[in-house]
Amino acid sequence: MEESFADLAPSAYDLNMSSLSDRSGSMVYLKSHQNDPPLRNQQLTSRPNHATLHPNSNRGRVPPQPNQPPHFRANNPARLPTSSSLSTNRDSPSSQSTPDLQGDHSPSPKPQDQSQASSVRHPSPNINNRVFKLAELLSGNPANFQHPLCTECTDKLLEWMHNQLQSAKSNRDRYAIFERELNREKSAAAEGSYESCKKIKQDIEELKIRESVAVQKLRQTESECEKFEAELREIERLESEQDKEEEQFWDDYNQYLLESEEIQSQLDSVTTRYRNDQNELAKLKATNVYKDAFCIGCETGVGTINGLRLGRLTDVPVEWVEINAAWGHTALLLQTLCKRMKFTLDGLAIANLLIGLTRPAIEACWFDCRYRLIPMGSFSRIERTKGDKSCLELFGSDDFALARMLHNRRFDNAMVDFLECLRQVSEQVIRRNPQTKIPFRVHKDKIGEASIKLSFSSDEAWTSALRHVLFTLKIMNAALDHISN
């Protein structure tokens, strides 16, 4: 509606309504636009009394003017509809709709129609009442107006009411189309209702059968589930027991590892001590005490024992003190070899020596054992236990010629007896170890090809015989070590 009508002042309203005081009970008809269909047989209600519309309109009313402007009557040949006719046209679309549209199945307008409807401005009820009253005012006789209404306002009012009429017609047409579609769908649904109902019943029966099968499977599954739950509980119980056993096992295993490590540590310690003892034993076995105690060698053609030279040469003079000391070590070595073999030179034989020998051999051995060595350093002696039982000196001296001659004779006899003792011991060694080879043969006063007597040989021959004696003692000492090992 035009804003000028909405904000109409009360004085202007009273001025316009005062012309309606003499028009009571007149009937008006709404003449629509020439292109629009006319509204027929719609009797409009009479205009309300001026006092009814506005009780206070008589206050300060302007007196009626006798002369009306001619242009108002010329430009307004048609009469405007009253409020009753407008209300009838406004309600006509709803009155033409079917009862089915009033229910829950009435469709909502399309989005395009909603946007079109929302574009139409709907005034409030108070504004509509004012518009309808103005329409009644305009529909009256223009000659009765004491104050004319302008043509522009009348045109705007008619344009607004025409828009309202077009909107109502559009709604009516949409509802009619929807009603036809709904009736067509109802008729189509009625034709196939029987078949669809039969199919639905069949579907229901099939669903019931499937439901019974599913229920049976469900019960079977529930029973299996209960069985599995019982088995699961049993497995959990066994698992807990197994966990306890496993825990106990690991405790025992850890204890076993500790004990094993302790035992292994002790074993390693014992093994280390054993290896050290083995090494020490190997060293001790490799050590020859007799070889270390009696070190035999040769120096400038003269045999030595423990660093003492036994013999002398023309160009290598040796003192008798050193030679006598060397003879003492030589006699001690021969006595030591006899003790190692448990063999005595004084006529007493050990039973172990006689095992496996014949009686003549035993008697010969007994008969030959007639000497006894007395090692005394530089003053060693050899004693005869049979015959004259004499004791001979095994050392020389630097006395005057006659005394030296007598002494050398006794010294030569002592050395010959020593050589005989060496022969007896060598024979015993060969008997015990047949693999022993003595390179020098002992016969009377000779060993090899050299004589051991000093009086009838040169210093070189005597020294060579003494060197052979020392070498023979060294071989017998090594042979006894091999036998003992």
Automatic annotation (TrEMBL):
Residues 26-126 are annotated as: Disordered. GO terms for cellular component: phagophore assembly site; phosphatidylinositol 3-kinase complex, class III, type I; phosphatidylinositol 3-kinase complex, class III, type II. Keywords: Coiled coil. Residues 148-281 form the Atg6/beclin coiled-coil domain. Residues 204-287 form a coiled coil. Residues 284-350, 370-479 form the Atg6 BARA domain. The keyword Cytoplasm does not apply. This is Autophagy protein 6. GO terms for molecular function: phosphatidylinositol 3-kinase binding; protein-macromolecule adaptor activity. GO terms for biological process: autophagosome assembly; cellular response to nitrogen starvation; late endosome to vacuole transport; mitophagy. Residues 40-59, 81-100, 111-126 have a biased composition (Polar residues). InterPro entries: Atg6/Beclin, Atg6/Beclin_C_sf, Atg6/beclin_CC, Atg6_BARA. It comes from Puccinia graminis f. sp. tritici. The lineage of its organism: Eukaryota, Fungi, Dikarya, Basidiomycota, Pucciniomycotina. Belongs to the beclin family.
